[in-house]
Write a structure and sequence with these properties.
The chain has 318 residues and is of the alpha/beta class. The chain is built from twelve helices and eleven strands.
Length: 318
C-alpha cells in the first residue's frame, strides 16, 4: 500500500469514528438536567433544603460542598440583596437568627432593634466585616455569608441549584448566572398565577426552568395547575397537601399522566400530610416511601444523607 492510499484510508476511517469520541464529556449537572427533563426517568431526585445544614451552616459554601460530596441532586439556597446591590445567601431578611456579630462593641450593637438589622441595611463589605454565620445550634462559626456568585462558582457543573426568594431580583440573579456560566443549572420557583408570572418574566420565562408552587389551601389549585400546563408545561410542580385525603393527591395523578414531575417537601408535617423527615428517620418506608408511592419525583429534605440511603436501598436513586 503506497503512502497516498494509506493516508486516504486513515482519513475515511476517521470519518466513521463515532462522534462521541470527540464530544466533550458531560458534567454531572448536565446529566442531572437531562434526567430531570426525561419524562420516563424513574429516579427520585433529592433536594437539600438550604444545603446540608445539619452538618454545616445553612446557605453556606460548606453546606453546598457537603451536598456535592454526598451525591445530592439539587441544593436549595435563598438569596437576599445587600444595600449596595450584592446578592448574598440568607434565608431571612435579617441576621438575627442566622448571624452573629464579630465584635459586639462596634456600631452595630443595637442591630436587632425593631426596624434594624435587615440585609438591605448594610453593604456587602460591612456584612463581611461584622458578621459570621451561626450553625444549627445557634453558635457562631468562622464562616462568612457567601455571595450568590461564590455559590454558583462552587456548584458549577456539579449539582443543580434551586434559588428561592430570587424572583424579586430576577435581573440580578440572571446576570450572576450568565457571569458564572450556570444558567442551565438553576430552577426558579414561585406561587404566582401563570399570567402574572408571564408578565413579570416576559420572554425570559421561555429560557429558564421555572417551577410553579401551589397548595391545597388554595381553593383554585386545580385551575392554577391546569393554566400552567396549558400555557407553559413546566418540568415540575411543587405541591403541598395537608392530609392523606387531600384532593391534591388526585390532581397529582393527572399531572403524572401529563409526564410532568412532582416536587414535594418532607421538611415539616404540615407540608406533606404528616410524612415529615423526623418521622421518616424512625420509619422511612412509612413516610418517605408513602410520599413516593403517592407520586413524588423530587423530594426536598432536611436529612439528605438519610434520604439518599433510603432511596438507594429501594433502587430509586441510581
Amino acid at each position: 500500500m503506497n503512502k497516498r492510499i494509506f493516508l486516504k484510508t486513515i482519513f475515511f476511517a476517521t470519518l466513521l469514528l463515532p462522534l462521541s469520541i470527540f464530544a466533550k464529556e458531560k458534567t454531572r449537572a448536565e446529566i442531572l438536567l437531562e434526567q430531570l427533563k426525561d419524562p420516563n426517568c424513574k429516579k427520585v431526585f433529592v433536594v437539600a433544603h438550604r444545603g446540608d445544614w445539619r452538618n454545616a451552616c445553612e446557605n453556606s459554601l460548606h453546606a453546598i460542598q457537603s451536598c456535592i460530596d454526598m451525591g445530592v441532586d439539587i441544593v436549595e439556597i435563598d438569596v437576599r440583596l445587600t444595600k449596595d446591590g450584592v446578592l448574598i445567601l440568607n434565608h431571612d431578611k435579617d441576621f438575627k437568627r442566622t448571624g452573629a456579630l464579630v465584635n459586639k462593641k462596634n456600631a452595630y450593637k443595637n442591630l436587632y432593634k425593631k426596624g434594624e438589622g435587615n440585609v438591605s441595611d448594610y453593604t456587602y463589605a460591612e456584612i463581611q466585616k461584622y458578621f459570621v454565620l451561626r450553625n444549627g445550634a445557634g453558635s457562631p462559626t468562622p464562616w462568612k455569608y457567601p455571595t450568590l456568585k461564590e455559590a454558583m462558582q462552587l456548584a458549577k457543573g456539579k449539582i443543580l441549584v434551586n434559588i428561592d426568594k430570587g424572583s424579586a431580583y430576577m435581573d440580578k440573579v440572571q446576570k450572576v448566572l450568565e457571569e458564572t456560566g450556570t444558567e442551565n443549572q438553576v430552577i426558579y420557583k414561585g406561587g404566582a398565577p401563570y399570567q402574572r408570572v408571564r408578565k413579570q418574566y416576559g420572554d425570559l420565562l421561555d429560557k429558564i426552568i421555572y417551577m410553579p408552587i401551589t397548595t391545597d389551601a388554595n381553593k383554585n389549585f386545580s385551575a392554577y395547575i391546569d393554566d400552567f400546563i396549558t400555557n407553559y408545561r413546566p418540568l415540575a410542580f411543587e405541591l403541598i397537601y395537608r392530609t392523606e385525603k387531600s384532593p391534591m393527591l388526585e390532581k397529582i395523578k393527572e399531572i403524572k399522566k401529563q409526564k410532568i414531575k412532582v416536587w414535594v417537601n418532607t421538611l415539616w408535617p404540615r407540608m406533606q400530610a404528616g410524612h415529615s423527615d423526623e418521622y421518616a428517620y424512625l420509619d422511612p418506608d412509612a413516610h418517605w416511601g408513602w410520599v413516593v408511592r403517592h407520586g413524588a419525583d423530587i423530594m426536598q429534605t432536611d436529612r439528605p444523607a438519610d434520604m439518599l440511603k433510603y432511596l438507594r436501598s429501594k433502587g430509586l436513586h441510581e
